[in-house]
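Follow-up to my post from last week.
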Amino acid sequence: MMSSESISPELIQHYPWLPSLKKVYEDIGNQDPLKFTMSVLSKQKNNLKERILNLFEATFNNIEFIENYKIDETNIYLYLMLRILLFILNNDILTNRIANLYSKIQYDELLGENDFNLYKILQDLNLDIKYYQIPIKYRVNKIKDQTEVLRTNFRIHYIDYLKLSSNLRDEYRKLVNNPLSEGYVFILKKRLVRLLQEYVRGKFLELKEKDKQNLEVLRSKLLEIEEFEQIYNIIKNQWELIKEEYDYSIEFKFKEGADISTIFPPCVKNILSQAKEGQNLTHNERLFLTFFLHALEYPVEKIVDIFSTLPDFDRDKTTYQVEFAKKKGYDPHSCETLKSLSLCKAEKYKDELCLKGYYSKKLDETRKIKHPLFYVSFNQFKLSKDKNDQS
Amino acid sequence: MINHKFLKRLFQAYYRENKDRIPLISSFTQREFGFIPWKEETMMIRHIGFNDIDGLKTYFINNAPRHAYSSGSLYLMPENSDMDQKQYIGCDLIVDIDVDHFYTPCKEDHDIWICKDCDTIGKGMKKKCDKCGSLKLKTINWICEECLEIAKNEIKKLMYDFLIPDFAIQPDEMHIAFSGHRGYHLKVENKRIRTLDSDQRREIVDYLTGHNISFEILGLEKKALNIYGLIRENLDWSEKIINKIVNMLQTYSDKQLNNFLKRIGLNSNVIKSFLNSKDNFLYTLKVDDHNLWSIEGFDVITWKKFLNGVVDKVGVELDEPVTIDIHRLIRYPGTLHGKTGFKVQELLIDELEAFDPLNETRDDLDPIIFKSAENTHKIKIIEKEVPQTKIKGETYGPYEKGEIVEVPNHIAIFLLCKEVAVLE
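User reply:
Got it. Predicted complex:
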């Protein structure tokens, strides 16, 4: 077991979302937002402004990393200013996107941390963790004559595990699919760091829930600070230019070049809308969307771009997986399978075609939609028929 | 209504005479209380708070409710009817094991259903009428030693296979009670558990029941023509599943295995193949290092059916919504159950094993508080069929509509509470 010691200022600079910020940097951590903004922007004007705008620009351009990401005291100001700006901007899409980008950066940083520092970080978050200097065995995989032994240095208390993983909906993260003994879940470092990423993301997402009563008051006061107003306006103007792209509609074209986004079934719309908002998608949702878009012959890079907004996005891995799925030529799930996976959203969207079916002239009866691809082709047929009727 | 007046008077007398035996539960003033009075329509009176246990006792004596509940949750203002204004603090983990919710073989003997559309009467746990397929069934659910023993075993399984070894719940954090009817409650009082929301509780429910388990994640995999299975030494559900399979292979007769495999939907050829290979399979699970699950006719889908059947045996049969819902009320210990007249009996863990609700020998644990062989009542049966009742070693019934019988006090109260008879 490791001993508990107080956390260093360097670690706080690295990870300013740690609770010890308020202790180690007492003067910064406990200031009210207005005073903090005034003092920090007067001291750190150019350097900080550049970093803030860099981060927003990367977000607007859907870039998954920040070049020359620096670890210094300004990094603390950056984190706090981002929180203030996002609260004032009051824009859920921007908050999600920044939360995803920032937490991804932190994920990479945390993954590179040594166990000692990682343990201190976990302790600072008041997480109940057991650390073993000699990794402990918790699982064996045996296929043919090959045996793979899985060991880990970490175990996390199931309550902390449940709290950190509650927004992650993948099957493999479910408690029932994990080794749990004596109140602790055995967890690989990488998965533990992914949970921390989720914690960091949550630090931004919680801003959406915060009391917005004083929002206008604080905004008008903050905008009286010239430097803040400049940054705020640059972001607002950039957002105005690109916000159309973020409005809910699917911009991809079918192979002939016709926009078919409006005729997608609710199950697809729902996943796309979650991706747009930067929410986590389950493994099944990712698979289904990939198979569906492949079936409509969307280019690989376009499909990868859809996933780029996800908190755990990794371009190389996703490209490989999307290409692999294309090579294999898997069919998208049928409506029946989608229902069994709770991915059918006909009720949620009150979609008449899904719920009531369509009238078949040939069979003289009402038929149910059985496959999401049929939903698209039926709507496409209907659209072209309407067009012909009009002309 | 005659029943109600009579029963209310009896309940009132019980509360008056036993007021000092009504226990004080933890965080009493932060709990919400709810009561169902003796009325034709069952309407719960909720959002009641008490400053002390004397207030509750007085309420019991004055009102003698048919059913009495308190919340698993703690609130700063438990008496506020607006959930948002109640100021939720946290919720204990409640597990309700009630044989109403799962199959027991004895139901074929004592649970009766009557079709409201075609009047057909049948036995067992049915959802629709055997004759006309109607879903409108009236059910008369009974109790017997066997189903209450099964419920008790589920509570033991919950504690000893899950809560203690996996969740490290301490014995003094667990509070068990016989519900007074068809099962048991277990309440875990732990500060950290109180902070869990409903979604997080659902994860615990899935862990306890084995629902949403992924056999692929646990290791079931097809490679080329071979299928590789789960490994006993893995510290996840694999260990529980393999232990159960080994136990079944070692202790079940071929007939029992056949019944199990039939129930999970395997065809006779596959069942035959399994029974022929069972020794080899046992060797694979216990000794062989190759982890090759090879039984003729078993593909991945068949193995999944088989494993799901085993998971159903390993998992706990609990009433899921009760554990997930953070605003549920559960029966208050020491109160009387309006459907039986039995007491909701708190039990220490050590007392559970020997506890026999229908034939308890320890007076302080006996839920049948109206027992009396000398004091009898004449009652008239008003239900078409009333199953046999065995309480305190004596058997009564079965009865048919119109019969007038003289039975001991506790049997009369039981049948009146069950609303299958009226005082003559």
